Amino acid sequence: MSSLEVRNATIAYGRSVAVTDISVTVPAGTSLGIVGESGSGKTTIAAALVGMVPLITGDILLDGAVLGATRTKAQRRAIQLVQQDPYSSLNPRMTVRQMLRELLLAHAIVPRSQVAARCAQLMAMVSLDPGSLDAFPHQFSGGQRQRIAIARALAVEPSVLVADEPTSALDVSVQATVIELLARLKQELSLTLVFISHDLAVVNAVCDTVAVVKSGALVEVAPREQFFRAPQSPYSRALLEAVPRLPTR
Amino acid sequence: MSAVSEPPVTVPAPPAVRTGPQTFLARARRSPTLVVGLAMTLLLLLSAVFAPWLAPFDPSAQNLTGGLLPPSAEHLLGTDQLGRDVLSRILFAGRTDLRIAFLAAIVPFVVGVLLGLVSGYFGGTLDYLIGRLVDTVIAFPFYVIVISIVFAVGTGEGGIYVAFALVGWVGYTRVVRATTKALRGSGWVAAARGGGLSHGRVILRHLLPNILPQAVVLLMTEIILIMVAVVTLGYLGLGVQAPTPDWGTMIHDGQAFITTKWWLSALPGLAVIYTGISLSLVGDGLGDAWRVR
């Protein structure tokens, strides 16, 4: 279980600044939901958290220790990303077993003799049949692929899981099962979770704290109940009011 | 709340893993292109490997009283101007030309693929430097640069290997670099790096298997190209030196008798075409079998 802190972070792609001076803290074992419209900088924040994009200014701290521009193997292992698109996040030429096995051995998570058992355990953890460990990604559905991506992230036993819109490419019925899985894993594994989404209902179901991003800047950070009951910023209110509701009969 | 209790919602179990021709071998068996190509190539390789046993005569044995004989029961494809058995020479020439083509293709393949991977993956200055080197080599017409190198290094097999090692890698580097650049941004590459794997491991275990199908298809094309170049060099007198039989030298030697003994040039030419078609089919078929659907 680890705490994560972003301190005055500015992130840019070349000359284009995507995120400006954001600061947010995620206490150990809790979950932060980052919401905002498309292009607001949510995915950029996720990429920076896992070290894929460097910060222009500011710091990212894991358990109070600053993560440098070049992260060590252990630091990269500690924060894992579940990507938005399960169709491009899995190597098409590796079986699930090969993916998991490689990570388990690279970090010496379990002795070589226990790798097979651990692979099966990881599959069971994400409610997939361990019998399909030798299948390739294209043999699975979108929801199943996202579960594999989650299993892969969990294989290295991270303390922080960053889920970047993990359900946006999935059918509504499958979305619910993936959300439920993430919420369960967070509890069971005491993970610190950063959940990025534009779906406020999903954030409400999973997160303890909500951060609202607009045009690359944080406009509000609030506990979940407070955010959904009495949002402080006009933009947050607009976001909540924009949620489509089914007509009541 | 409704007074009538609703039945529990049952979520259907996710479908089992999709079946079908999922492995390379399963797809390979279903590719007629590959099956025919492999059969033709196997025949070619067997004829080359077993040439000493298949050839009815010593390919270098001259019989000056029996020159330029037409095909007969004794000499199935006739004899050349020095009375050497044409069938025996074609079989032995295949042995020479195929050996050179396959061996000369190895170094450019390994170097070209590695440079393309490194260039495409890391980008930046290294990519710029490798790119300019590729542009420089490509700027020279292929045969001009190969002939120049063979002249400089010396004719014969050694010169051919050096020439293709220096020139042949650019094709692989260009293709592999472009493919690697496209794949570098994939989620699975990011996930591999994020999982704590080293650059070397990401390149060799993740990117290489994904670009290898294209590279191997290209390898087949390059082997054909090298074989045709070896034959061309032999034809120009810069390749394999006499008395070792070579299809290019045979085409050249038969040229003087093309109007009366056309088969002396045509038959080694047909052997070159047969080899080209066989390897092309194998390349296409491998591409089909490797493609993940």
TrEMBL record, chain A:
<dbReference type="Pfam" id="PF00005">
    <property type="entry name" value="ABC_tran"/>
</dbReference>
<dbReference type="GO" id="GO:0015833">
    <property type="term" value="P:peptide transport"/>
</dbReference>
<dbReference type="InterPro" id="IPR013563">
    <property type="entry name" value="Oligopep_ABC_C"/>
</dbReference>
<protein>
    <submittedName>
        <fullName>ABC transporter ATP-binding protein</fullName>
    </submittedName>
</protein>
<keyword id="KW-0547">Nucleotide-binding</keyword>
<dbReference type="InterPro" id="IPR003439">
    <property type="entry name" value="ABC_transporter-like_ATP-bd"/>
</dbReference>
<dbReference type="GO" id="GO:0055085">
    <property type="term" value="P:transmembrane transport"/>
</dbReference>
<comment type="similarity">
    <text>Belongs to the ABC transporter superfamily.</text>
</comment>
<dbReference type="InterPro" id="IPR003593">
    <property type="entry name" value="AAA+_ATPase"/>
</dbReference>
<dbReference type="GO" id="GO:0005524">
    <property type="term" value="F:ATP binding"/>
</dbReference>
<keyword id="KW-0813">Transport</keyword>
<dbReference type="InterPro" id="IPR017871">
    <property type="entry name" value="ABC_transporter-like_CS"/>
</dbReference>
<feature type="domain" description="ABC transporter">
    <location>
        <begin position="4"/>
        <end position="240"/>
    </location>
</feature>
<dbReference type="InterPro" id="IPR027417">
    <property type="entry name" value="P-loop_NTPase"/>
</dbReference>
<dbReference type="Pfam" id="PF08352">
    <property type="entry name" value="oligo_HPY"/>
</dbReference>
<dbReference type="GO" id="GO:0016887">
    <property type="term" value="F:ATP hydrolysis activity"/>
</dbReference>
<dbReference type="InterPro" id="IPR050319">
    <property type="entry name" value="ABC_transp_ATP-bind"/>
</dbReference>
<keyword id="KW-0067">ATP-binding</keyword>
UniProtKB/TrEMBL annotation, chain B:
<keyword id="KW-1003">Cell membrane</keyword>
<dbReference type="InterPro" id="IPR000515">
    <property type="entry name" value="MetI-like"/>
</dbReference>
<feature type="transmembrane region" description="Helical">
    <location>
        <begin position="34"/>
        <end position="55"/>
    </location>
</feature>
<dbReference type="Pfam" id="PF12911">
    <property type="entry name" value="OppC_N"/>
</dbReference>
<dbReference type="GO" id="GO:0055085">
    <property type="term" value="P:transmembrane transport"/>
</dbReference>
<feature type="domain" description="ABC transmembrane type-1">
    <location>
        <begin position="94"/>
        <end position="283"/>
    </location>
</feature>
<dbReference type="InterPro" id="IPR035906">
    <property type="entry name" value="MetI-like_sf"/>
</dbReference>
<feature type="transmembrane region" description="Helical">
    <location>
        <begin position="133"/>
        <end position="153"/>
    </location>
</feature>
<comment type="similarity">
    <text>Belongs to the binding-protein-dependent transport system permease family.</text>
</comment>
<protein>
    <submittedName>
        <fullName>Nickel ABC transporter permease</fullName>
    </submittedName>
</protein>
<keyword id="KW-0812">Transmembrane</keyword>
<dbReference type="InterPro" id="IPR025966">
    <property type="entry name" value="OppC_N"/>
</dbReference>
<feature type="transmembrane region" description="Helical">
    <location>
        <begin position="215"/>
        <end position="242"/>
    </location>
</feature>
<keyword id="KW-1133">Transmembrane helix</keyword>
<feature type="transmembrane region" description="Helical">
    <location>
        <begin position="262"/>
        <end position="283"/>
    </location>
</feature>
<feature type="transmembrane region" description="Helical">
    <location>
        <begin position="100"/>
        <end position="121"/>
    </location>
</feature>
<dbReference type="InterPro" id="IPR050366">
    <property type="entry name" value="BP-dependent_transpt_permease"/>
</dbReference>
<keyword id="KW-0472">Membrane</keyword>
<dbReference type="GO" id="GO:0005886">
    <property type="term" value="C:plasma membrane"/>
</dbReference>
<dbReference type="Pfam" id="PF00528">
    <property type="entry name" value="BPD_transp_1"/>
</dbReference>
<feature type="transmembrane region" description="Helical">
    <location>
        <begin position="159"/>
        <end position="176"/>
    </location>
</feature>
<keyword id="KW-0813">Transport</keyword>
